[in-house]
Amino acid sequence: MNIKYYPLINRALKLFKIKEKASAKVNEKDKYFDTPFITISREPGSGGAPIAKAVAKKLGFEFADNEIIDKVAKSVKKRKEVIKQIDEKARTGIEDIVHSILNKDYVDETKYTKELFRIILAYACKGNAVILGRGANFITPFARGLHVRITAPYEVRLQRAIDFEGLNKTKAKEVIGKVEKERKDFVKQYLKKDISKANSYDLTINTKYFQVDEARDIIIEALYRKFAHYTSIKK
Fold this sequence. Notes:
alpha/beta, Rossmann fold, five-stranded parallel beta sheet, globular
């Protein structure tokens, strides 16, 4: 996607005031958000990523996940691997100072979050995109997109990590716990929100009972219902 940083995006970023007021709302009636988008939040092991990809493929929407990392890396002029290490992770002020001294490739939290928010807003502004994770439902105008949470019982997610990632039970518990905490802390620190609050989403899907294609179709139907007046999204 050739992203254009519309004036709206710069105005939105000023509202955020990284960390303290990152949850401030963009004007939801702004003309730039004229095409809907989808944000998908997910618990580790719930199947959120394959579901998001399936939704994007069926709708012909742009899929934004690793693409976000690529654009942040390019914007801050750092290697992709450097951005991956800090993606969707909270940091303390002490960590930021220590790493900035010891690691010449380190990206401070203000620069990282500013570029992250800018890029997510750009995807939302263009529309016809599925944005995965990174608190995108809190960054973008709620009324202008469909916001989805993918979840599953802990034991189901644990077994999937064992079956599909080839991890033993102890390692699977460790990985799920670590990723879950990182994502929750990231949203809490930079957006002042609780990622698990049900009213932060239009739709929550428990994938214990739905396969990828079934969850995909539920999300697409929800998009059509929320944005019935946007005929352009219908195939």
